[in-house]
Specification:
- The complex is a heterodimer of chains A (133) and B (127).
- Chain A is built from 5 helices and no strands.
- In chain A, helix 1 packs antiparallel against helix 2 (28-37).
- Chain A has one domain (3-119).
- The radius of gyration of chain A is 16 Å and the shape is globular.
- With 133 residues, chain A is mostly helical.
- Chain B has 127 residues and is an all-alpha fold.
- Chain B has 2 domains: 1-78, no CATH class; 79-127.
- Chain B has 5 helices and no strands.
- Chain B has helices at residues 13-30, 35-44, 50-74, 80-101, 106-126.
- Chain B is globular.
- Classes of the chains: A mainly alpha (133), B mainly alpha (127).
- Chains A and B meet through helix 1, helix 2, helix 3, helix 4 and helix 5 of A and helix 1, helix 2, helix 3, helix 4 and helix 5 of B.
């Protein structure tokens, strides 16, 4: 990693964090395209790196919730069981896809999410967690 | 869909596992957490409150993202140094963002951000 690259990544991390905190959206949706467009990571590398970054953020966030008694561990376990299986399926599928195709599919995901954000306009802000998604 | 809504305090674990499965696929496929679909699904289908749904989704993201990161790591598609720098940056950013949230009207911000994301998506489609 070169110094300019490290600086760019630091900027991406701070920006993703600020926006995640502000909008209650996840960091991945921001970090992945930023790594692709700014630091020229290929789509697979950007997605794999994003997954690793999400882990500590989600862990710290859920610890805080746990301390405040907002976390239903039983429900989280049920979600996690299905989730782990899904993650296996999803990531094996992603790795089998051509990088360019995956990038296009990701762009479509962004469009859908942006459309959803435009449609929820006018609603009261929901108490979502920073980086929850 | 409507028949699945339960007024019971304890949501059906099988339903939650199905929601988790869908979120896991999305997470593995796109390198995101999956909360995007988990939280609304838990609120709408499992009848959970928004706050509890958010907290619970966040906890399940830990194993979900870990599995994805492991599989991508096996394929040499994880950059450890980049992840370390991103984590450091986002920890700072999240504090700032959470503090700003109370001061900025979020409607204009949301629209601006959505438009920005559309521009990014279009750039990705042509590049």
């Amino acid at each position: 990693m070169t110094a300019p690259e490290a600086l760019a990544l630091l900027g991406i991390g701070v920006t993703a964090g600020v926006l995640a905190g502000l909008l209650g959206i996840g960091g991945g949706l921001l970090m992945v395209p930023a790594m692709v467009l700014i630091t020229a990571f290929d789509q697979h590398l950007a997605q794999g790196t994003s997954l690793l970054v999400i882990i500590p953020a989600a862990a710290f966030g859920s610890l805080t919730h746990h301390r405040h008694g907002r976390l239903a561990l039983r429900d989280a376990a049920a979600l996690g069981v299905g989730g782990v299986l899904g993650a296996l399926l999803g990531s094996v599928t992603a790795l089998s896809l051509d990088d360019e195709l995956l990038q296009r599919l990701f762009a479509i995901l962004i469009l859908v999410m942006a459309g959803r954000m435009l449609m929820t306009r006018g609603q009261a802000p929901e108490p979502t967690d920073p980086k929850a998604t | 869909m409507v028949s699945m809504v339960s007024s019971e305090d304890r949501p059906n674990p099988l339903l939650l596992a199905m929601i988790g499965l869908a979120a896991g696929v999305l997470s593995g496929l796109f390198g995101v957490g999956g909360g995007i679909i988990m939280v609304p699904a838990m609120v709408l289908l499992a009848g959970m409150g928004q706050q509890r749904a958010s907290a619970t989704s966040l906890a399940s993201i830990v194993p979900i993202a870990a599995v994805g990161a492991l599989i991508f790591g096996q394929a040499d598609s994880v950059s450890l140094p980049a992840a370390a720098v991103l984590i450091a940056g986002s920890l700072v950013g999240v504090q700032v963002g959470a503090r700003l949230m109370t001061r900025i009207g979020d409607d204009r911000l949301r629209i601006g951000f959505a438009v920005f994301m559309i521009a990014i998506a279009l750039t990705m489609l042509v590049s």
